[in-house]
Amino acid sequence: MSHTIAMVVSYNGAGLSGFARQPDLETVQGRLEQALGTVLRRDVEITGAGRTDAGVHALGQVVSFEASGDEPSPDALIRSVNALAGPGIVVTGIQRAPAGFSARFDAVAREYRYRFVPGPVPPVFLSPYAWWIKHKLDLHMMREACAALVGEHDFASFCVSESAREGSTVRALELVSIEPDMVLGEHSVVLRVVGNAFLHSMVRVIAGTLAEVGVGRREPGWVADVLEARSRAAAGPTAPPNGLTLWHVSYPEECWL
Q1: Active-site residue among 53, 75, 106, 181?
Q2: How confident is the model at residue 165, as a pLDDT?
Q3: What stretch(es) of the chain map to CATH 3.30.70.580?
């Protein structure tokens, strides 16, 4: 029976030119397709759940490709791809789905997390995975600002201008939260954003906008004004890519065989 293979992939985005295949550049898609082509001895084209930018990380990216029926066992395929994909990219799991399944179009929710390290002391261990902001962050004010973003809105103010010209900029966010966290003994603040789909750089612009509130340059109510403006110029800066991780992608349970 023909079917689709879905792989859960983690990667360190530093040194990679994003997810999408690009000529003469090191990308996640390019490296995975090359590794799969070597293992399966055929051309393989994968579809990713999210097209992360250069420098953005992933813990739970999902990619899919059509199976031919002669693939090795999941454990053997994971070992082989991980041996060939190169540093910083690992397959952590494999599932089977019906033919025609798409990691991108069958996803019902995506969770991104953006990590800040606030305060005058720079992080040591977290520096590759967080935005060091040299000021304290007022989490209460940031949480108040988050409330304006939950629900279905036109997020034209929160994406690069090219995305705004390509189609609808209406998206639905079911969760936008701010929580303190500690990793390897270092304090950080984590922004969680869960939604059905995202525009180009949307989470990074949300992070940069909320940071303006957190450091006290803007009031929480300003975020609602930014949404209403529907203009990228109204929002805060685009946060650096290294603080962002594609954390998890959700699918209906009936997707899996």
Answers
A1: 53
A2: 66
A3: 3-106
